[in-house]
Specification:
60s Ribosomal Protein L30, Chain: A, 22% helix, 125 residues, alpha+beta, globular
């Protein structure tokens, strides 16, 4: 059985996908970009501020689905430039202090809407 998750606090999908889908106790969160729902725009600043907003958006979706960051088992971090890795990693680490999820990080040519960072997440209950 699938359950579709949509948090009003996180940005709406900008294409034919869901914010998140839960199936058999596993939550799959689509890649989140640094859109602030209050403004409908990217947060101002660089990779630090964008990563902070991405993690907030992930948190809102986790909360809506009844999960927490402690339930996260895997993240995939996409960066517009690998030189941003250290800053992204520092901010990301604020959400995962111990028993950190598995993770991959890649630099990609372009991200949606010109984002500097996008993170997708998988959580399990």
């Amino acid at each position: 059985m699938k359950r579709f998750i949509n948090s009003e606090k996180a940005p709406k999908a900008i294409g034919p996908y869901s914010q998140a889908v839960e199936a058999n106790g596993t939550l799959y969160i689509s890649g989140q970009i640094p859109v602030d729902v209050a403004t409908g725009k990217f947060v101002e600043g660089g990779v630090r501020e964008q990563t902070e907003q991405v993690m907030k958006n992930i948190g809102y979706i986790l909360e809506e689905a009844g999960y927490t960051f402690k339930d996260v088992v895997k993240s995939t971090c996409l960066l517009s430039d690998m030189s941003s890795f250290a800053v992204m990693n520092e901010v990301y680490g604020n959400c995962y202090k111990e028993d950190c999820p598995a993770r991959a990080a890649f630099a990609v040519k372009d991200l949606p809407m010109g984002a500097l960072v996008e993170i997708e997440t998988i959580a399990v209950k």
